[in-house]
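Figure-free illustration: sequence to structure, shown twice.
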Amino acid sequence: MPDEEKEVDKAAVPPPPAAQSKKKTIILIVVLVIVGLALAAGISLFVVTKVMGDIPGGGSEEGDSGPRYHDAGVFVKLGDPKEGILVNVGGPRSGKYLKASIIVEFNPGKKSVINEETNTLQPDAEVKINDVATQFLRATSMEDFDADKQDEFKKQLKDALNAALGGGSVYDVYITSFLLQ
């Protein structure tokens, strides 16, 4: 029995000050790591939300009336389904021709543009779209077809189509082939 009393007395004895100091140091390190991780997550969230808005197509540009995020649109190829669009550019005497495959993503919620049942263009909207696209391409100067200006070219075409069909009708414009001869 005397052995049992000694064991109980050992358990009741507080640990030496060096062990308490070591325990406090470990707790302090764990707390600092957790605070550091929370701070890093907060900074990352801030950077993503603020910087991503400055990326082209991020939706924060002035005059960008389209939604930043949207449901999947209806994709329609302009011009002939196989050939695309073929127009003369640079004036009637330039002898320059453009053959392009341009695909436009339309807002499926615009009933005046998209037939809800078949997910195809309304007949009157199709005529307007082809007319606007052809006129836009013919009126564009040769310098504007430069590869460095392609993003601006697509934005201008999108704006021209939205002006003819009503704002928010066109989500985006994609160029899948482009031959200028």
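We now fold a second protein in the same way, so the two outputs can be compared directly.
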Amino acid sequence: MEQVPERSRRNGLVVLIQNNSIHSNKRDMIIKSVRGISPVLGKDCFIAENATIVGEVTMGDQCSVWFNAVVRGDVHFIKMGNKVNVQDGAVIHCTYLKSPTTIGNNVSIGHNAIVHGCTIKDNVLVGMGSIIMDDCVVESNSIIAAGAVVTKGTHVEANSIYAGMPAKKIKDISPELSSGEIDRIANNYVKYSSWFKEE
């Protein structure tokens, strides 16, 4: 898929936008370059007016970054796939020169979650208020329960639910739970963001 990014200036800040795809009610969000590197957003994304996205951030299509969320690619890169929603108050960051953050497709980052210097693969639900630390790998079709703390270097098995402090596997995910929670929430956030694009 070939796309020619457009360089756009908003309140003196710079962002690369794929095919005029950014949607927001106001132009007060902070989207800015750091050390000459600007965020690149995919098609049909929604960015809330008080969200913050800075530095080396690459975002796929149909993503959304909600109110007071921060995606800070200043010390390493952050790469997000398609249909990723970063809910209100969530923080995505990295560790300088050591641990970037990579997020796959169809991923929901719950309210006030912290995702730091880790790899999250496809079809994952990161619960509200949970923390995923450096060098963790969260395999596909997994759920990190609300309030869980996934400590540095943890490998979360595919098709599983991890909960607690520190987070441990508590059970496998059924196909019904995967479609009923992981897919449902990711799809709902595409729908929710469409409401704001209409304003």
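Summary for the second example: The first helix runs from residue 175 to 197.
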